[in-house]
Structures are given as C-alpha cells and as structure tokens.
Amino acid sequence: xxxxxxxxxxxxxxxxxxxxxxxxEAGFDEAWFAARAQPGVQRLKxxxxxxxxxxxxxxxxxxxxxxxxxxENPYGPSPAARAAILDSLxxxxxxxxxxxxxxxxxxxxxxxxxxxxxLLGNGSHExxxxxxxxxxxxxxxxxxxxxxxxxFALATQAAGAAMRIVDALPREAxxxxxxxxxxxxxxxxxxxxxxxxxxxNNPTGTWFGRxxxxxxxxxxxxxxxxxxxxxxxxxxxxPDYASALSVLDRYPNVAVTRTFSKAYGLAGLxxxxxxxxxxxxxxxxxxxxxxxxxGPALAAxxxxxxxxxxxxxxxxxxxxxxxxxxxxxxxRGLRAFPSQTNFVLAEFGARTPQVEAALVExxxxxxxxxxxxLADCIRxxxxxxxxxxxxxxxxxxxxx
Length: 400
Hints:
Elements: H1 10-26, H2 30-34, H3 39-42, H4 53-60, E1 66-67, H5 79-88, H6 101-111, E2 118-121, H7 123-135, E3 141-145, H8 150-158, E4 162-166, H9 181-187, E5 192-198, H10 210-218, E6 225-229, E7 254-259, E8 272-275, H11 278-285, H12 295-305, H13 308-331, E9 335-336, E10 343-347, H14 352-361, E11 364-365, E12 367-368, E13 377-381, H15 385-399
Parallel strand pairs: 1-11, 3-4, 3-5, 5-6, 6-7
Antiparallel strand pairs: 2-8, 7-8, 9-10, 10-13, 12-13
Helix pairs in contact: 5-12, 6-12, 7-8
Pathway: Amino-acid biosynthesis; L-histidine biosynthesis; L-histidine from 5-phospho-alpha-D-ribose 1-diphosphate: step 7/9
Protein name: Histidinol-phosphate aminotransferase
Catalytic activity: L-histidinol phosphate + 2-oxoglutarate = 3-(imidazol-4-yl)-2-oxopropyl phosphate + L-glutamate
C-alpha cells in the first residue's frame, strides 16, 4: 500500500523567516528586549549617577574639577588601607577568600556580634537589592519613605513587589522631609514583607534618635523585616542618634546595612556589609554571588577597621566643614537642611536647574534632586576646606 506523501514544512519555515526578518528590520532595541523582561524589571529605570564624571574630568582636568555630587570622603582612606592594597597585588592571579573570613572576624570584633551574623556585599547597594529579592515578591508590599534612598525603589520593583511610599515629614518640621516613623508604621499591612529606612537618610541628611527608633520598632510585626540602611552612621555625632545595631538582640527582625564607601573613604573598592540574625544571613547567603568582594578590597577594609584614629580624624574634619558649609549657605539666603552625614541638602527654589547648570559650567559638580522629587533642591557633598571655598566662590558668581 502506498504511503501518503509527508506534509511539507516549507510554509512554516518560510513564515518563521519572514517573522525573523521583520524583527531584524524593526531592530533589537531597548523596547524589544524590555517587552521580554520580567514584569518588575519592565517598570524599572536605571540608577542615575547624576553626571558623567569621567567625561567632566577629561573636560576640566581632575585638578580643576570640584566633585561634590557623590558623597565621597575627600580625605581618602587610612594609609594602612593603601598599604594593604599594595601588599595584596602579588596575589591578583588568585581568587579572593570566598567567605571574606578575616574581614568578617574584624567586623564581628568591632560590632560585638557573631561572624555568622555578617554578610559582605559589593557595596551596600548589592545587599539592599538582594534583601528585596529574597524577602519580597509579586503580590507583596515593601514600605519606605518618600525621599528615601533611591535603591529602595529599585530593589522593590526588581523583586516584583508593590511600593508603598509614605509621605515624609513637612518642610516646616524639625527634620524637614525626614522620615515620618508613625506614618511608616501605620502603612505596614498584612502584605508587607520589608520596610526600608535610612538613618541618617540620603538625600535629606536627616536622622532620628534611639527613643524614636525603639518606639517605631515596637509597632512593627515581628514577621516584617526592617532594613536599616546606615551608610552614614559613622559620621553622625548628634547626642540622640543611635545605631540600630544597639537593638538587634531585642528586635530579631532588624537588619542593618553599612558601607566602607563613605567615612572609610573606600568608595572605589565597593564594599558593604549586612548585620542581622544568623538565620537571616544564612538565607541571604544562598543568593550571594561567589567571590563578590575582591582581594584588595578585603585587605583594605580589614586594615581600615584597624585604624580608628584616621576614622575619627576624617569624621571630625567632616563635622567641622559640614557646619561651616551649612552656615555659609544659610548666610547667602539659601536653606540648608539639618544633616548628620557628609552632605547638605540645600533649597534653591525655582532657579535650581539654572544654578546647578551654571555651576557645572564652572567645573563644580553637585547632585540635582529632581529624580527624588525635590526639584528645588541640590545635594552638596561636604568637601575639603579648599573644595568648599571653590564651591562658594563659584556660587557667589552664579547668584550675583
């Protein structure tokens, strides 16, 4: 018996080629790929660094550029950290310690915690993102304050969770645009998995004290993880300020992130750390990228921890210049928000975009705040005495 002739696959193949040709003709652009991304990623906007600093350095020359937009430590790291980096260069062909054991042990001694309570990250940014990935997802909520650190929103959206943004304190408050802790606590619902809080806060510079911290944590259900981002804690000198590290034993749902980028002057190495209950750290470790902190960074951070004198010196200089810069801004009819960080948020009013652009033309780089919803403000990093003088001289020209 004769068999029926097999049906040709040519028409289907031809249609596939046509479809492919259409895609190629349309172009594999950002929109094409975005349509194929996870829903949470589709809603994201890339982190905005403010300015192309490399291009500006080439334009003005590093010696002529006043970089006061990224909250860096103008005094640099401890000499011991520099020496440790150089000493580590002979081992660049080796992978770094995947556990970061020596640095973890040094951190454990400093903060009086167990090594198992510490997780290292490629900056605290990585850790904040991972906390969202691990503990939040679709159909769940993450609560944080308006004008909180930009990474809180990025982490929430990347995880596919819903953002519940709580209005900040009014500008007339003692801590203008700071966290309204009562409102944040009231916003926590049965769907809330994470609460992100920065203390002191970026970009406002505002803070709250121990009594307010304890009163807030007492209102949060134990199943909700509270992430306290303390990137600027070392520079806070207000008598009422207290790190959440002091209450970890009382509130096991609290996790604290810190960084070596600010007070320790090691922003170029990108090292942060998380301190929390050992069980939380163990779960987080499942997502940690292998060798996520490089060898020279591990060595430098351990050495920096051992040089308390340099840290105290740098923080004291920052406090002096922060006060002087705030006074100078206020004297010029501007409004400098209270700050316990190494930056000052200043209110310039309707002329803000023009002032910021004019300063860039004079080689002074600050951080515009439109992306934070503070379009009439500029965040100014506290520089060295010379940098601050150059900033104020340029500002006087612009405001004249």
